[in-house]
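sorry for the late reply, my laptop died twice this morning and i had to redo everyting from scratch. anyway the thing you sent over, i finally got around to it. pasting the sequence first so we're on the same page, its 480 residues, then the predicted structure underneath. double check i copied it right bc i was rushing
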Amino acid sequence: MIERERPAFPIDFLKDLIRKLRIPGRRDGGSDRFPGPSSENLADDVLRVQVGVIRKAFKAAGLDVAGAPIEGKRRVVDDADVRYLYRPGHILARREDVGRLREFFESEENQKRFRGKLDARETRVPGLVLAVLPSRTDEQDDVLATLVEVEDGGFLERGAATPDHVVYVTPKGYLCPATEPEVPRSRRPWPPPTPYDREITDEKTKIRVTVVDSGLWKDAVGSAESPWLETDDVFAGNEDLEQVIPTKIHEYAGHGTFVAGVISCIAPETRIDVEAALPYGGAVFESDIVDQIQDALEENKPQIISISAGTHTRDNHELLSLVLLAQNNKFDENDDVLIVAAAGNDSSNDPFYPAASAKDYPWVVSVGSVDPDKKVSDFSNFGKDWVSVYARGRNLVNAFPKGTYTCHEPPNKGKVRKFDGLAQWSGTSFSTPIVTGLIAAEMRDNGLTARAAWDVVRQTAITEYDARIGEDIQIVGPLT
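ok and here's the structure:
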């Protein structure tokens, strides 16, 4: 939900350009969704609000988060400068590297610079350790400054230990015009339900998809407003059910339900298990989300894991937790497990994980967003080296809680919207389940493994040159 951009051009240039244009970010220089003049600081204001939602949710649970800058080893002061969020005082490391970390903290010099001892705690992922760091006696950050010193001192290679990043859903992001949920103009879903005249009665033969998201709003399942969410296909444990107050729908409510609905429309007769893995304003610590995925792998044995969430990372290193999760579950050797992940909504080509792992591993598919005109959505991340494919992510319509929602982001802050079981939403969060559904349908119809089905779906892609990003892109799925 929340995350700035370097390789294409500097982030400050992009921010200044948006301000000079005085628009929320549309290519055509205006927006029918945002009437009237917009704030010169709209991009900054939106990011502050989004980070604020996460901070508030973590704080309510007795937890804290910190913001890291694009460069440097000090926490940001202004949330408009956040590159990624992380857990203060904690890092992730391999079990075999804990000894080297202890050597660093137990050296004579560092015993004077730190208070306490390193506390290394095992996670649900074998070999992955969550380490509570000794506190520093200077004013430097316990995580950012300490990791620099550990690496510069030669105790660990760069990226061998990482912050415990905050992973967040991505319906809207920095420099992103994708809206908060809107009241749809039509009572029909988009993408429309795909006709399928065969009922699969044997649950063991259904394709299994796990949606790692905000949980399931159960009232949508089997309802008159969203009948494509069938009671025989969409599931969530009691702990994964999303509680919604109808008179005050909370931020990012219904996100997981909406994603499940898109998959159901594209691939009927697919078993979808929705996990409430992002409980804090649509966010969670990296160490916790891999625990949830590990549980899902053991309990539901999914063939596709759909993740409309992610984060930028320290120095663009891959998520250590996901690498170890994959190693322990032998993803490289298993053609029937695939992660489909959102590329993020920063209008940037800076890697966004776990989606960016697609550049290194065959078990990850990274999904960007295009508009109906086949152009990359102005909110979508991009990059031919790590975005695998694009699907429509603009103005999708699907299941959403009934009730009233008060907008919390500028320029619509304070506006009240009333929903009756459907919403319109935009972002790579929603292009992702289109690709998930396409893969699941191919598996269902032709008895293929997840990776083989992905190869077939990829072969259906059309190639378009996008002048804005200067790249050829591959597009799959319906557009209009």
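The chain has ten helices and 22 strands.
thats about all i looked at so far, will dig more tmrw
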